Amino acid sequence: MAITDPVPDMTAQAAPTGAGLLVLLAAMPQERLQGVLANLAASFPAEGLLVASPDALPPDSYPTLRFVAAPATSTSWTLHAADFVNAYQLAEQNGARAVLMLGPESGSLDLSALHSLAYAVLATEAELAVSCYDLPLYAGLVNSAILYPLTRALFASPVRYPLAPDICLSLRMAERLAGAAHRFTAIGEGEAPLWPVNEAMVAGFTIDQFDVGPRLQHQPTGPDLNIILPLLTGSLFSDIDAKAAFWQRFRPLPPVRNVVPMPRVPATGAAADIAPMLQAFGLAYANLQEIWSLVLPPSSLLGLKRLAATDGEAFRMPDNLWARIVYDFLLAYRLRTINRGHLLGALIPLYLAWVASHINLTAASADTESHIEAVAAAFEAEKTYMVSRWRWPDRFNP
Amino acid sequence: MKKPASATDPLWYKDAIIYELHVRAFADSNGDGVGDFPGLLSRLDYLQDLGVTCIWLLPFFPSPLRDDGYDIANYVDVNPSYGTLDDFKAFLDAAHQRNMQVMIELVINHTSDQHPWFKAARVAPPGSPARAMYVWSNTGQLYKDVRIIFTDTEKSNWSWDDTAKAYYWHRFFAHQPDLNFDNPVVMEEVLKAMRFWLDMGVDALRIDAIPYLVERDGTSCENLPETHHVVKTIRGAIDADYANRLILAEANQWPADVRPYFGDGDECQMAFHFPLMPRIYMALRQEDRLPITDIMAQTPAIPDNCQWGLFLRNHDELTLEMVTDDERDYMYIAYSNDPRMRVNVGIRRRLAPLVDNNRRRIELLNSLLLSFPGTPILYYGDEIGMGDNIYLGDRNGVRTPMQWNSDRNAGFSKCDPARLYLPIVMDPIYGYQAVNVEAQLSDQSSLLHWTRNLIALRKLFQVFGRGSLSFLNPVNRKILAYLRDLERGDGSRETVLCVANLSRFAQPAALDLSSHAGAEPVEMLGYVPFPTITDDPYVLTLAPYSFLWLELHPPTAKPAPSSSRLPAS
What is the rounded average pLDDT for all residues in chain B? Predict the structure, then answer.
């Protein structure tokens, strides 16, 4: 069962000794690497700590730290299948009991965050420790709109960032993830995302989640939304399909996250402009009806029709409509109702409509988390709809 | 080089959905009128979408094809009509990539009389090793009380060979001489052939005609202790060198006689449950559960690592060997009013024609197949309700080409129709223009979609493949009700209540579920909550030929009802 913990006060807590901790770093520029190493040196006793990085490590900068070379993988905002294979191999080769995986820009994490993640696995029964970030306003919305509510509703996991790039794994968890990752690396798809939270839930492993505060986000240089959204949703949909026998059996819902309404700070000073999103949705509404009608039932299509008739500040997508849309796309993905690439492409304008609605809903208070929790609750409420559609996917439905 | 097993779970066969097909009948890639491995490979996506997890291939080895390939002339090659060994390997790899296992035939009771071993045996001197590959007699009087299996064509189990100047033993057709397992060379050759395919990555072997491997005078020559020694030797050789492989016994015997083929879990992991199949049809026609509950009561427990193989139809006749004389007479009258529908001791008809093409009956029988304890085995074409052709000889009426679409030759082959290995079914009810995969794929209400959905549902619940069975006994005998229960390794439990109405009319059922009082049933197809079970009889009303699968949730685990309200405006 997963719980969310605040970062404990580590100043009074003794650091674990004989930790057997492997820290696997993502590739990053030298100056940032220096910062991360400084944090590590300050957080953990040198004995029992091993740092693995694909980058050349600065000679003699940290004589107390032990280093090992990690295979190079592509730098990304999230972890890939190949990263998990490397993590397990390095951990096993070096006798580590836990692997702390830190993504790009992890130097921006607080020292206590690193300590909490590692300590949870080394000193408690948790097999997986994940980060919960305090991100800027409207950051990480694909996660908020789809990844988080889906994994929460189906896998009964309260983990807010299921693809968090900063996590800690037990050796057992690392082995399981390496096994799952091997399916991808064996066919040359080492850059496929992996879903540690889902794996842990299926395995019955304990997950610990920590509020780690703000974090700089790695800005992807190449891919835009048209690539990222199909990549992530496609990957998650596949994982959900593969684990259907698990999540379809009844599971208690995770405890509701205790969200304290808190205005968030925009990443930039500019106010979010929803006009291009509404334009994209309107254009898609005019052109994608044929595809949407293959995927969505009449009630959802009617909801979209109403939505298309509103604009500007009045634009609101009901949470239950959004939940059903995502569920129906998931079902169509499983059934290969249409080409999966086209299917996920057809989800993008609907996602933009959700983003526009989300911005409108939260514009006054900037309290996005409350709305995101309401969306997650809608996904949970509509899970029965999903299960019934999954089990008997007749197109003749309401 | 030996390939590792494609399955990671040693008990994979317990959760499997097996699909039986003949390469010859499935898809023809080169337009010669005969199905082949490239054709089959091109249809793997169809099987994967259907939910199949294991493909059982009927014999595809070089053969004179006088018994549809069960007369093998070379154990370690592919019949050129179906492709090459490389074609088979490509198919095998493609199946494994789709997480499907592959089962092939190990037909070791007999060979073709065209096998080089038999050709050599005929001219070899009596007593020589070459001669001793088969069972010979100078008189034809040995084992004279042993029953004849193919009663329509064979008058004796012995046939005279003019070259050898002796009689040879055959339990099946005269052109299929039985191998002599008293000769150790036979076992060596069988193991060599077996390893040839297992090394390639084949996952499972169906041992054909397993009760007849060894002969002893004064016995029925069936199910002998020496036969079990042969089976144990084969299993031992597999366990010594291979992981996660399966052997399935074809033993058309009573359950108590089949039970020894599981041994102590050290013979076959699977065996067909032959007597259950005709009794399912009998129960349906009589609208009475007794034939089913009776045969299940006679079914002994089997070792934990073993499993029954269940089927509604297969490539042979609906065998009536394992029924009483009265039951056989009833089945003939009920299901084969035309004598051409009968062959040997059985009925040569497909599933849909057997039940007068009634969709609800087909669904009901499939619901039993998929919810009874065992691994379901589907026969190709039954998922779309294919018909048969009783005017074809032997059992060929149920071995016609797969009907893919309404194009020429049903999309099976591009050849001249006259060149097909067997004619396509063309009658107005079951003909390929009415019954084909393409049409049913585009029809959301088709039998194909229904079958696919039910298979997918079954696969979500391990209890169907691994759970225990206990019958309920409602007063109304037209109702068949049973509980499947599984305690999972993680401490949780799966309990499913299955209720079937065997009648053509609506029926009431009052079930004693007091031992589950407090549980909350959820109808599994639609995820619909049903009233909570109490100490009182649980009353249900079932439509004609309908069935219910209800998952029993513990009291605190009730899901919220699914709503279908319009989104808020």
Answer: 94
CA nearest B293: which of B59, B500, B488? Answer: B500
Count: domains in chain A: 2
CB pairs under 8 A between A and B: 72
Q: Are B312 and B280 in contact (CB under 8 A)?
A: yes
Q: Alpha-carbon distance B148 to B155, whole Å?
A: 7
Residue whose structure tokens are 């089997």: B302
Instruction: Judge if A327 and A178 occupy the same domain.
Output: no
- Tokens 């009536």 correspond to B320
pLDDT > 70: what percent of chain B?
98
Q: What's the whole-model pTM score?
A: 0.88
Q: Extract the tokens encoding B418.
A: 């006259």
A residues 265..304 contacting B (CB < 8 A):
299-300, 302-303
Which of A227, A247, A267 is where one domain is finished? A247
**Topology (CATH level 3) of domain B12-109+184-458:** TIM Barrel (3.20.20)
With pLDDT > 70 as the criterion, what percentage of chain A qualifies?
88
Q: Pick from B459, B460, B523 the residue to mutate for testing the A interface (most A CBs within 10 Å).
A: B460
- Region A35-63 average pLDDT: 85
ipTM: 0.80
Name the nearest CA neighbour of B56 among B305, B270, B212.
Answer: B270
What residue has token string 């009087």?
Answer: B141
- What 8-state DSSP symbol labels residue A145? I
pLDDT at B5: 82
- Alpha-carbon distance A77 to nearest alpha carbon in chain B (angstroms): 30
**Helix axes A275-287 and A340-362, enclosed angle (nearest 10):** 140
Residues in Cβ contact with A151 at an 8 Å cutoff, skipping those fewer than 6 apart: A157, A159, A162, A195, A197, A198, A236
Which residues of A fall within a CB distance of 8 Å from B457?
391-392
- The two tokens of residue A59 are 């000679």
Tokens matching residue A334: 């499983």
